[in-house]
Amino acid sequence: MASSLKFGTSGLRGLVTELNGVPAFAYTRAFAEMLKEDGSAVAANGVVLVGRDLRDSSPSIAQLCCAALKESGLAPLDCGALPTPALAYHGMRFGLPAVMVTGSHIPEDRNGLKFYCAKGEIDKQDETQILAWHGKLDIQAVPDQARNLQAGTPEIDLLAAYKARYQEFFGAGAMAGLTVGVYQHSSVARDVIVEMIEALGARAVPLGRATSFIPVDTEALREEDEILAQQWAGEQRLDAIVSTDGDADRPLISDGTGAFLRGDLVGAITARALGADVIVTPVTSNSALEASGAFGRVVRTRVGSPYVIEGMAEAGRSGARAIVGFEANGGVLLGSDILRGDRQLAALPTRDAMLPILCALHEIVANRKPLQEIGREFAFKAAASNRLKEVATEKSVAFVSRLELDEIFMAKILAPLGGVAEHDHRDGLRITAKNGEVVHFRPSGNAPELRVYVEAATPERAESLLSWGLQIAAQHTR
Fold this sequence. Notes:
Blueprint: E1 6-8, E2 11-15, H1 16-19, H2 22-38, H3 40-43, E3 47-52, H4 58-71, E4 75-81, H5 84-94, E5 98-101, E6 110-117, E7 120-121, H6 124-137, H7 144-147, H8 158-170, E8 179-185, H9 190-199, E9 203-209, H10 223-235, E10 240-244, E11 251-254, H11 263-273, E12 278-282, H12 289-292, E13 297-301, H13 305-317, E14 323-326, E15 332-334, E16 338-340, E17 343-345, E18 348-352, H14 354-367, H15 371-376, E19 382-388, H16 393-405, H17 407-414, E20 420-424, E21 429-433, E22 438-443, E23 450-456, H18 459-477
Parallel strand pairs: 3-4, 3-5, 8-9, 8-10, 12-13, 12-14
Antiparallel strand pairs: 1-2, 2-6, 5-6, 6-7, 10-11, 14-15, 15-18, 16-17, 19-23, 20-21, 21-22, 22-23
Keywords: Isomerase, Magnesium, Metal-binding, Phosphoprotein
Family: Belongs to the phosphohexose mutase family.
GO molecular function, one term: phosphoglucosamine mutase activity
């Protein structure tokens, strides 16, 4: 039986039953050998940071990662539970590789490993090297002596440094007068968010703290999350409700009515707030970005932070001054330093939930407008997205490939929309119909799911189109 473990759009992921044990040890050993081979380990004096989210399986997997690094002759530092961007920020700041144990937003029966080199997130070439070392090492068991190896602890408070990054840029009192609900659930950043926005002058109202892990997917919200937000907004006078996914690299933001903003709109608000002249975003982000006129240049990529990072790097080489990348899931990556008067926010080319949360809140204060009005200024098309769960990847790929290659099949499927105007196959298949509506079918890179994204003139039509798209996908994959 094939293993569920594989590299997707965000690191190595799979079932806990298949990761927690020899595989976690073996893949981390492979990562360590890659670091030693390319000289990164020597440059970092052998130090590798290890962090984790709040899943029940994460502490034991993190312990295996530390053991693998120690067994390789490196010096792991156990950083405990903290946001992925906080770990990445410290690593990039001091040139240290890192491993984050997290499954992000996927169900608790799954988990994963995110690997970082000194320069930041690993790229596809690094993935290939890790897989090659994994095969070469062919580890079949965790050595008994490795299980007893102890990791060190960092001398610097990583969370304090992460909070200082934003407190120094925005300044004390930047959010004075705001009342912000913080949906805590099982986010690893649930306390950090409260502390951060209170330090900037807002009043934080903690909400919905969970005692067990909840897989909050910012790109496919659960109905109960939407109901909760509306209830909280109705019970209290809130300017916004903010949250993140499990490892805090994707934000979740609602306006004062409890209506959640889509991630690409959050990204656009963030980019404009930071004065970006170039934005880099995947094909799944709203097609109105180009028409908004808010940005000098819009660069489109495949889904996944490695592709956004690659696009930001290219924009930097082309002379862009202020570069912001973001994804439809809301994750924002800062591709360049940002200057605001005498304050500077250093580049952080990895997904970060805190920056868009703070930018959205700051925009409410700076513009003296509610968040829903700020969002409407971008004139986004109504959009919706969801997923078919438990769809084998090979079935998703076969369906999308048939759509792309069989023109008769595509024409038949799209006939209710008046036919096909154009299509983009950079990532899955994004079809623009002759009536201007958009339907995008994309196999997930992280789980056995088929994602469906749509755009239409009204929210009601978008929901109807999404329902139709999911039904079509189900008919051809089940």
